Write the C-alpha coordinates for this entry.
Amino acid sequence: MSAFNSMSSPTSLLIRRASIILPNGEMMVGDVLTRDSTIVEISPQIEANSPTMEIDAEGLTLLPGVIDPQVHFREPGLEHKENLFTASCACAKGGVTSFLEMPNTRPLTTNQQTLDDKLQRASQKCLVNYGFFIGATSDNLPDLLSCTPTCGIKIFMGSMHGQLLINSEALLDQIFATGKRLIAVHAEDQERINQRRQEFAGITDPAVHSQIQDNQAALLATQLALKLSKKYQRRLHILHMSTAEEAELLRHDKPSWVTAEVTPQHLLLDTSAYAKIGTLAQMNPPLRTLHDREVLWQALHDGVIDFIATDHAPHTLEEKAQQYPNSPSGMPGVETSLALMLTAAMEGKCTIHQVVNWMSTAVAKSYQIPNKGAIAVGYDADLIIVDLKNYRPVLREELFTKCGWSPFEGWNLTGWVQTTIVGGQIVYHQGKLCTYVRGKALQFG
Ligand code: DOR
Protein backbone atom coordinates (compact mmCIF):
# COMPACT_ATOMS: atom_id res chain seq x y z
CA MET A 1 0.00 0.00 0.00
CA SER A 2 1.79 3.21 -1.05
CA ALA A 3 1.15 6.64 0.40
CA PHE A 4 1.76 10.26 -0.56
CA ASN A 5 1.83 11.67 2.94
CA SER A 6 4.20 14.48 2.13
CA MET A 7 1.41 16.37 0.37
CA SER A 8 0.08 19.32 2.32
CA SER A 9 -3.64 19.37 2.90
CA PRO A 10 -5.27 22.19 0.92
CA THR A 11 -8.13 24.28 2.29
CA SER A 12 -9.33 24.87 -1.24
CA LEU A 13 -9.52 22.39 -4.11
CA LEU A 14 -10.46 23.07 -7.73
CA ILE A 15 -11.50 20.10 -9.85
CA ARG A 16 -11.28 21.16 -13.47
CA ARG A 17 -13.04 19.98 -16.65
CA ALA A 18 -14.82 17.02 -15.03
CA SER A 19 -17.96 15.39 -16.36
CA ILE A 20 -20.06 16.20 -13.30
CA ILE A 21 -23.13 14.10 -12.49
CA LEU A 22 -25.59 16.66 -11.09
CA PRO A 23 -28.44 15.86 -8.65
CA ASN A 24 -31.04 16.00 -11.46
CA GLY A 25 -29.14 13.30 -13.32
CA GLU A 26 -27.77 15.64 -15.96
CA MET A 27 -24.11 15.60 -16.83
CA MET A 28 -22.23 18.91 -17.06
CA VAL A 29 -18.63 19.38 -18.11
CA GLY A 30 -17.15 21.95 -15.77
CA ASP A 31 -15.35 22.84 -12.55
CA VAL A 32 -16.10 22.24 -8.89
CA LEU A 33 -14.53 24.36 -6.15
CA THR A 34 -14.37 23.23 -2.53
CA ARG A 35 -13.37 25.32 0.46
CA ASP A 36 -12.50 23.69 3.78
CA SER A 37 -14.87 20.71 3.74
CA THR A 38 -17.69 22.11 1.58
CA ILE A 39 -18.58 22.45 -2.11
CA VAL A 40 -18.74 26.21 -2.73
CA GLU A 41 -19.11 26.55 -6.51
CA ILE A 42 -20.08 24.45 -9.53
CA SER A 43 -19.79 26.12 -12.89
CA PRO A 44 -18.54 25.58 -16.47
CA GLN A 45 -15.39 27.54 -15.60
CA ILE A 46 -14.19 28.82 -12.23
CA GLU A 47 -11.44 31.38 -11.64
CA ALA A 48 -9.79 30.53 -8.35
CA ASN A 49 -8.49 33.62 -6.56
CA SER A 50 -7.14 32.14 -3.35
CA PRO A 51 -4.32 29.58 -3.05
CA THR A 52 -5.89 26.46 -4.41
CA MET A 53 -4.85 22.98 -5.33
CA GLU A 54 -6.02 21.95 -8.77
CA ILE A 55 -6.90 18.56 -10.21
CA ASP A 56 -7.35 18.21 -13.95
CA ALA A 57 -10.24 15.78 -14.46
CA GLU A 58 -10.60 16.12 -18.21
CA GLY A 59 -12.13 12.95 -19.64
CA LEU A 60 -13.04 11.72 -16.15
CA THR A 61 -16.36 11.67 -14.29
CA LEU A 62 -17.07 13.34 -10.93
CA LEU A 63 -19.56 11.63 -8.60
CA PRO A 64 -20.59 12.11 -4.98
CA GLY A 65 -18.68 9.68 -2.75
CA VAL A 66 -20.25 6.28 -2.12
CA ILE A 67 -22.01 5.80 1.23
CA ASP A 68 -21.86 2.09 2.07
CA PRO A 69 -24.65 1.40 4.56
CA GLN A 70 -23.63 -2.10 5.65
CA VAL A 71 -20.08 -3.17 6.47
CA HIS A 72 -18.35 -5.36 9.07
CA PHE A 73 -14.92 -3.87 9.83
CA ARG A 74 -13.97 -6.28 12.67
CA GLU A 75 -12.49 -3.77 15.14
CA PRO A 76 -12.39 -4.23 18.06
CA GLY A 77 -11.62 -7.86 18.65
CA LEU A 78 -11.32 -9.50 15.22
CA GLU A 79 -8.45 -7.44 13.82
CA HIS A 80 -6.76 -10.48 12.29
CA LYS A 81 -9.45 -10.20 9.56
CA GLU A 82 -9.60 -6.40 9.16
CA ASN A 83 -9.37 -3.20 11.21
CA LEU A 84 -10.72 0.32 10.90
CA PHE A 85 -7.50 1.57 9.27
CA THR A 86 -7.15 -1.16 6.62
CA ALA A 87 -10.90 -1.16 5.94
CA SER A 88 -10.99 2.61 5.50
CA CYS A 89 -7.98 2.42 3.13
CA ALA A 90 -10.00 -0.09 1.08
CA CYS A 91 -12.95 2.32 1.22
CA ALA A 92 -10.81 5.21 -0.05
CA LYS A 93 -9.62 3.06 -2.96
CA GLY A 94 -13.15 1.92 -3.76
CA GLY A 95 -14.65 5.43 -3.66
CA VAL A 96 -16.50 4.82 -0.38
CA THR A 97 -16.32 8.11 1.53
CA SER A 98 -18.71 7.10 4.35
CA PHE A 99 -19.73 3.78 5.89
CA LEU A 100 -22.21 2.40 8.41
CA GLU A 101 -20.71 -0.44 10.43
CA MET A 102 -22.31 -3.42 12.16
CA PRO A 103 -22.20 -4.39 15.85
CA ASN A 104 -20.84 -7.99 15.64
CA THR A 105 -17.36 -7.07 16.84
CA ARG A 106 -15.74 -8.19 20.12
CA PRO A 107 -17.04 -6.79 22.39
CA LEU A 108 -20.40 -6.42 20.66
CA THR A 109 -21.57 -2.83 20.08
CA THR A 110 -24.62 -2.94 22.33
CA ASN A 111 -24.30 0.03 24.70
CA GLN A 112 -22.94 3.58 24.94
CA GLN A 113 -19.54 2.46 26.18
CA THR A 114 -18.86 0.12 23.27
CA LEU A 115 -20.27 2.65 20.79
CA ASP A 116 -18.01 5.38 22.24
CA ASP A 117 -15.04 3.04 21.98
CA LYS A 118 -15.70 2.47 18.26
CA LEU A 119 -16.17 6.19 17.64
CA GLN A 120 -12.92 6.91 19.42
CA ARG A 121 -11.02 4.27 17.45
CA ALA A 122 -12.53 5.51 14.19
CA SER A 123 -11.58 9.12 14.92
CA GLN A 124 -7.96 7.99 15.28
CA LYS A 125 -7.78 5.56 12.38
CA CYS A 126 -10.44 6.12 9.72
CA LEU A 127 -9.56 7.82 6.45
CA VAL A 128 -13.28 8.18 5.60
CA ASN A 129 -16.48 9.14 7.46
CA TYR A 130 -18.09 6.64 9.80
CA GLY A 131 -21.30 5.71 11.58
CA PHE A 132 -22.18 2.70 13.70
CA PHE A 133 -25.22 0.52 14.36
CA ILE A 134 -26.19 -0.50 17.86
CA GLY A 135 -26.94 -4.23 18.17
CA ALA A 136 -30.12 -5.51 19.82
CA THR A 137 -29.80 -8.22 22.48
CA SER A 138 -32.45 -9.76 24.71
CA ASP A 139 -31.79 -7.26 27.50
CA ASN A 140 -30.55 -3.92 26.13
CA LEU A 141 -33.80 -2.12 25.28
CA PRO A 142 -32.82 1.01 27.30
CA ASP A 143 -29.52 1.18 25.37
CA LEU A 144 -31.36 0.86 22.05
CA LEU A 145 -33.33 3.96 23.01
CA SER A 146 -30.52 6.08 24.43
CA CYS A 147 -27.26 5.31 22.59
CA THR A 148 -26.08 8.17 20.40
CA PRO A 149 -24.96 8.91 17.74
CA THR A 150 -26.10 5.84 15.83
CA CYS A 151 -27.58 5.18 12.41
CA GLY A 152 -30.00 2.68 13.87
CA ILE A 153 -30.67 -0.61 15.62
CA LYS A 154 -29.41 -3.84 14.06
CA ILE A 155 -31.36 -7.03 14.67
CA PHE A 156 -30.03 -10.41 13.58
CA MET A 157 -33.25 -12.44 13.25
CA GLY A 158 -31.10 -15.37 12.12
CA SER A 159 -27.63 -16.40 10.90
CA MET A 160 -26.12 -15.44 14.21
CA HIS A 161 -25.40 -17.07 17.53
CA GLY A 162 -25.02 -15.75 21.03
CA GLN A 163 -26.36 -12.48 22.34
CA LEU A 164 -27.06 -10.81 18.99
CA LEU A 165 -29.51 -13.49 17.82
CA ILE A 166 -33.12 -12.39 18.37
CA ASN A 167 -35.47 -15.03 17.03
CA SER A 168 -38.37 -14.84 19.47
CA GLU A 169 -41.39 -12.99 18.10
CA ALA A 170 -42.30 -11.71 21.57
CA LEU A 171 -38.90 -10.07 21.95
CA LEU A 172 -38.95 -8.68 18.42
CA ASP A 173 -42.42 -7.28 19.11
CA GLN A 174 -41.12 -5.50 22.21
CA ILE A 175 -38.24 -3.90 20.29
CA PHE A 176 -40.50 -2.79 17.42
CA ALA A 177 -43.04 -1.40 19.92
CA THR A 178 -40.51 0.73 21.80
CA GLY A 179 -39.00 3.91 20.38
CA LYS A 180 -38.84 5.38 16.90
CA ARG A 181 -35.33 4.71 15.72
CA LEU A 182 -34.66 2.89 12.43
CA ILE A 183 -34.52 -0.90 12.82
CA ALA A 184 -32.35 -2.73 10.28
CA VAL A 185 -32.92 -6.48 10.09
CA HIS A 186 -30.83 -9.38 8.90
CA ALA A 187 -33.89 -11.36 7.84
CA GLU A 188 -33.32 -15.11 7.95
CA ASP A 189 -35.47 -17.48 10.01
CA GLN A 190 -33.22 -19.27 12.49
CA GLU A 191 -35.65 -22.09 13.25
CA ARG A 192 -35.86 -23.07 9.59
CA ILE A 193 -32.07 -22.82 9.24
CA ASN A 194 -31.58 -25.11 12.27
CA GLN A 195 -34.02 -27.64 10.91
CA ARG A 196 -32.45 -27.67 7.44
CA ARG A 197 -28.94 -27.90 8.89
CA GLN A 198 -29.98 -31.25 10.35
CA GLU A 199 -31.55 -32.39 7.07
CA PHE A 200 -28.38 -31.58 5.11
CA ALA A 201 -25.89 -32.60 7.84
CA GLY A 202 -22.66 -34.16 6.60
CA ILE A 203 -22.62 -32.47 3.20
CA THR A 204 -19.38 -30.58 2.69
CA ASP A 205 -20.06 -29.05 -0.73
CA PRO A 206 -20.47 -25.32 0.04
CA ALA A 207 -23.26 -25.14 -2.57
CA VAL A 208 -25.54 -26.73 0.03
CA HIS A 209 -25.35 -23.45 1.97
CA SER A 210 -27.90 -21.90 -0.41
CA GLN A 211 -30.21 -24.87 0.16
CA ILE A 212 -29.93 -24.82 3.94
CA GLN A 213 -30.46 -21.07 4.25
CA ASP A 214 -32.99 -21.12 1.44
CA ASN A 215 -35.37 -18.52 -0.03
CA GLN A 216 -38.09 -19.59 2.37
CA ALA A 217 -35.86 -18.88 5.39
CA ALA A 218 -35.35 -15.33 4.13
CA LEU A 219 -39.00 -14.83 3.23
CA LEU A 220 -40.31 -16.00 6.62
CA ALA A 221 -38.14 -13.49 8.47
CA THR A 222 -38.89 -10.62 6.10
CA GLN A 223 -42.62 -11.33 6.45
CA LEU A 224 -42.34 -11.19 10.24
CA ALA A 225 -40.31 -7.97 10.24
CA LEU A 226 -42.81 -6.38 7.86
CA LYS A 227 -45.73 -7.48 10.03
CA LEU A 228 -44.20 -5.92 13.14
CA SER A 229 -43.19 -2.77 11.31
CA LYS A 230 -46.77 -2.32 10.10
CA LYS A 231 -48.20 -3.05 13.54
CA TYR A 232 -46.27 -0.14 15.08
CA GLN A 233 -45.57 1.93 11.95
CA ARG A 234 -41.95 1.47 12.90
CA ARG A 235 -39.18 2.55 10.52
CA LEU A 236 -37.79 -0.69 9.06
CA HIS A 237 -34.86 -1.36 6.78
CA ILE A 238 -34.34 -4.80 5.25
CA LEU A 239 -30.63 -5.48 4.88
CA HIS A 240 -29.13 -7.38 1.94
CA MET A 241 -32.40 -8.61 0.44
CA SER A 242 -31.59 -11.66 -1.64
CA THR A 243 -34.66 -13.45 -2.98
CA ALA A 244 -37.29 -13.01 -5.68
CA GLU A 245 -39.96 -13.89 -3.09
CA GLU A 246 -39.00 -11.03 -0.76
CA ALA A 247 -38.87 -8.60 -3.68
CA GLU A 248 -42.34 -9.66 -4.80
CA LEU A 249 -43.64 -9.35 -1.23
CA LEU A 250 -42.39 -5.76 -1.00
CA ARG A 251 -43.58 -4.94 -4.50
CA HIS A 252 -47.12 -5.52 -3.29
CA ASP A 253 -46.82 -4.44 0.31
CA LYS A 254 -44.23 -1.77 1.09
CA PRO A 255 -45.29 0.96 3.50
CA SER A 256 -43.65 4.36 3.01
CA TRP A 257 -41.55 3.85 6.15
CA VAL A 258 -39.90 0.64 4.89
CA THR A 259 -36.69 0.52 2.83
CA ALA A 260 -34.61 -2.35 1.45
CA GLU A 261 -31.09 -2.83 0.11
CA VAL A 262 -29.30 -5.35 -2.10
CA THR A 263 -25.60 -6.20 -2.43
CA PRO A 264 -23.62 -6.20 -5.70
CA GLN A 265 -22.86 -9.89 -5.11
CA HIS A 266 -26.57 -10.80 -4.99
CA LEU A 267 -27.04 -8.89 -8.25
CA LEU A 268 -23.96 -10.22 -10.03
CA LEU A 269 -23.18 -13.68 -8.60
CA ASP A 270 -25.38 -16.75 -8.19
CA THR A 271 -25.14 -20.33 -6.99
CA SER A 272 -22.90 -21.22 -9.94
CA ALA A 273 -20.12 -19.32 -8.11
CA TYR A 274 -19.57 -22.18 -5.62
CA ALA A 275 -18.16 -24.37 -8.42
CA LYS A 276 -15.64 -21.65 -9.28
CA ILE A 277 -14.59 -20.14 -5.95
CA GLY A 278 -15.91 -22.61 -3.35
CA THR A 279 -16.32 -21.21 0.16
CA LEU A 280 -15.28 -17.71 -1.01
CA ALA A 281 -18.84 -17.56 -2.38
CA GLN A 282 -20.31 -18.43 1.02
CA MET A 283 -22.19 -15.60 2.70
CA ASN A 284 -25.37 -14.86 4.63
CA PRO A 285 -27.93 -14.57 3.22
CA PRO A 286 -26.52 -16.95 0.60
CA LEU A 287 -26.15 -16.41 -3.14
CA ARG A 288 -29.32 -17.36 -5.04
CA THR A 289 -30.32 -18.36 -8.59
CA LEU A 290 -30.13 -16.44 -11.84
CA HIS A 291 -33.89 -15.92 -11.58
CA ASP A 292 -33.49 -14.26 -8.15
CA ARG A 293 -30.79 -12.00 -9.59
CA GLU A 294 -33.05 -10.90 -12.40
CA VAL A 295 -35.95 -10.16 -10.06
CA LEU A 296 -33.65 -8.20 -7.72
CA TRP A 297 -32.39 -6.07 -10.63
CA GLN A 298 -35.96 -5.33 -11.66
CA ALA A 299 -36.93 -4.48 -8.06
CA LEU A 300 -33.99 -2.07 -7.86
CA HIS A 301 -35.05 -0.40 -11.11
CA ASP A 302 -38.61 -0.09 -9.87
CA GLY A 303 -37.71 1.40 -6.47
CA VAL A 304 -38.89 -1.68 -4.56
CA ILE A 305 -35.26 -1.94 -3.45
CA ASP A 306 -33.94 1.48 -2.47
CA PHE A 307 -30.18 1.23 -2.43
CA ILE A 308 -26.99 -0.85 -2.43
CA ALA A 309 -24.73 -2.03 0.41
CA THR A 310 -21.70 -4.29 0.21
CA ASP A 311 -22.04 -6.22 3.50
CA HIS A 312 -18.20 -6.15 3.43
CA ALA A 313 -17.51 -9.11 5.74
CA PRO A 314 -13.85 -10.14 5.49
CA HIS A 315 -12.47 -13.48 6.70
CA THR A 316 -8.89 -14.69 6.16
CA LEU A 317 -8.10 -17.13 3.38
CA GLU A 318 -7.01 -19.59 6.06
CA GLU A 319 -10.43 -19.39 7.71
CA LYS A 320 -12.16 -19.68 4.33
CA ALA A 321 -10.03 -22.76 3.51
CA GLN A 322 -11.77 -24.78 6.22
CA GLN A 323 -14.21 -27.37 4.94
CA TYR A 324 -17.90 -26.38 4.77
CA PRO A 325 -19.74 -25.94 7.16
CA ASN A 326 -16.75 -24.89 9.29
CA SER A 327 -15.83 -22.16 6.81
CA PRO A 328 -17.16 -18.73 7.86
CA SER A 329 -19.74 -16.80 5.81
CA GLY A 330 -18.93 -13.41 4.33
CA MET A 331 -16.95 -11.69 1.60
CA PRO A 332 -15.23 -8.31 1.25
CA GLY A 333 -16.75 -5.66 -1.02
CA VAL A 334 -15.90 -1.99 -0.46
CA GLU A 335 -13.06 -1.95 -3.01
CA THR A 336 -15.03 -3.40 -5.88
CA SER A 337 -18.69 -2.34 -5.40
CA LEU A 338 -18.58 0.94 -7.34
CA ALA A 339 -16.54 -0.41 -10.25
CA LEU A 340 -18.87 -3.43 -10.46
CA MET A 341 -21.95 -1.21 -10.62
CA LEU A 342 -20.40 1.30 -13.03
CA THR A 343 -19.35 -1.59 -15.26
CA ALA A 344 -22.97 -2.80 -15.15
CA ALA A 345 -24.01 0.73 -16.14
CA MET A 346 -21.60 0.75 -19.08
CA GLU A 347 -23.08 -2.61 -20.15
CA GLY A 348 -26.52 -0.98 -20.24
CA LYS A 349 -27.98 -2.66 -17.13
CA CYS A 350 -28.65 0.75 -15.55
CA THR A 351 -27.54 4.37 -15.84
CA ILE A 352 -24.68 6.13 -14.08
CA HIS A 353 -27.21 8.41 -12.41
CA GLN A 354 -29.01 5.35 -10.99
CA VAL A 355 -25.70 4.05 -9.61
CA VAL A 356 -25.14 7.44 -7.94
CA ASN A 357 -28.64 7.32 -6.50
CA TRP A 358 -28.40 3.72 -5.25
CA MET A 359 -24.89 4.08 -3.81
CA SER A 360 -25.02 7.61 -2.41
CA THR A 361 -28.09 9.87 -2.75
CA ALA A 362 -30.75 7.39 -1.62
CA VAL A 363 -28.59 6.16 1.26
CA ALA A 364 -28.06 9.70 2.60
CA LYS A 365 -31.79 10.37 2.33
CA SER A 366 -32.81 7.14 3.98
CA TYR A 367 -30.46 7.45 6.95
CA GLN A 368 -31.06 11.23 7.08
CA ILE A 369 -27.38 12.06 6.76
CA PRO A 370 -27.32 15.82 6.13
CA ASN A 371 -25.41 17.41 3.23
CA LYS A 372 -24.20 14.20 1.66
CA GLY A 373 -25.10 12.16 -1.41
CA ALA A 374 -25.03 14.88 -4.08
CA ILE A 375 -22.75 17.31 -5.86
CA ALA A 376 -24.40 20.59 -4.88
CA VAL A 377 -23.29 23.90 -3.39
CA GLY A 378 -23.32 23.72 0.40
CA TYR A 379 -22.93 19.94 0.40
CA ASP A 380 -19.93 18.20 1.97
CA ALA A 381 -16.95 17.83 -0.36
CA ASP A 382 -17.00 14.00 -0.39
CA LEU A 383 -16.25 13.44 -4.05
CA ILE A 384 -14.82 10.79 -6.34
CA ILE A 385 -13.28 11.05 -9.78
CA VAL A 386 -13.76 7.88 -11.82
CA ASP A 387 -12.43 6.66 -15.15
CA LEU A 388 -15.19 5.22 -17.32
CA LYS A 389 -12.98 4.71 -20.37
CA ASN A 390 -10.45 2.10 -19.32
CA TYR A 391 -10.96 -1.48 -18.11
CA ARG A 392 -8.70 -3.18 -15.57
CA PRO A 393 -9.03 -6.54 -13.81
CA VAL A 394 -9.56 -7.03 -10.08
CA LEU A 395 -6.15 -8.23 -8.88
CA ARG A 396 -5.56 -9.83 -5.50
CA GLU A 397 -2.14 -8.17 -5.10
CA GLU A 398 -3.67 -4.69 -5.49
CA LEU A 399 -6.30 -5.07 -2.76
CA PHE A 400 -6.07 -2.98 0.41
CA THR A 401 -8.48 -5.04 2.53
CA LYS A 402 -6.54 -6.96 5.16
CA CYS A 403 -8.18 -10.26 4.19
CA GLY A 404 -6.44 -9.98 0.81
CA TRP A 405 -8.96 -11.57 -1.55
CA SER A 406 -12.10 -10.77 -3.52
CA PRO A 407 -14.83 -12.97 -4.99
CA PHE A 408 -14.46 -10.87 -8.15
CA GLU A 409 -10.77 -11.50 -8.85
CA GLY A 410 -10.12 -11.55 -12.58
CA TRP A 411 -13.28 -9.59 -13.45
CA ASN A 412 -12.42 -6.89 -15.95
CA LEU A 413 -14.03 -3.67 -14.71
CA THR A 414 -14.28 0.00 -15.59
CA GLY A 415 -15.25 2.94 -13.38
CA TRP A 416 -12.19 2.55 -11.18
CA VAL A 417 -11.58 5.47 -8.86
CA GLN A 418 -8.74 7.84 -9.77
CA THR A 419 -9.17 10.24 -6.85
CA THR A 420 -11.18 10.13 -3.62
CA ILE A 421 -11.83 13.33 -1.68
CA VAL A 422 -13.18 13.24 1.89
CA GLY A 423 -14.22 16.53 3.48
CA GLY A 424 -12.30 18.48 0.82
CA GLN A 425 -9.07 16.50 1.34
CA ILE A 426 -7.55 14.10 -1.15
CA VAL A 427 -7.35 10.73 0.55
CA TYR A 428 -6.59 8.53 -2.48
CA HIS A 429 -5.06 9.39 -5.83
CA GLN A 430 -3.99 7.01 -8.60
CA GLY A 431 -3.13 4.05 -6.41
CA LYS A 432 -1.70 6.04 -3.49
CA LEU A 433 -3.25 6.82 -0.12
CA CYS A 434 -2.89 9.94 1.96
CA THR A 435 -2.90 8.17 5.28
CA TYR A 436 -3.00 11.24 7.53
CA VAL A 437 -6.50 12.29 6.39
CA ARG A 438 -9.24 11.49 8.88
CA GLY A 439 -12.99 11.23 8.27
CA LYS A 440 -15.64 12.48 10.66
CA ALA A 441 -18.44 10.89 12.66
CA LEU A 442 -21.66 10.99 10.62
CA GLN A 443 -24.72 12.78 11.95
CA PHE A 444 -28.20 11.29 11.52
CA GLY A 445 -31.58 13.01 11.43
O1 DOR B 1 -22.07 -13.48 5.43
C1 DOR B 1 -22.16 -12.72 6.39
N1 DOR B 1 -21.12 -12.52 7.21
N2 DOR B 1 -23.31 -12.08 6.62
C2 DOR B 1 -23.50 -11.32 7.73
O2 DOR B 1 -24.54 -10.72 7.85
C3 DOR B 1 -22.47 -11.27 8.77
C4 DOR B 1 -21.15 -11.47 8.16
C5 DOR B 1 -19.98 -11.53 9.09
O3 DOR B 1 -19.94 -10.71 10.03
O4 DOR B 1 -19.07 -12.30 8.84
Observations:
- Residues 72, 104, 186, 283-284, 311, 313, 329-330 surround DOR (CB under 6 Å).
- Residues 215-232 form the longest helix (18 residues).
- The two ends are 36 Å apart (CA to CA).
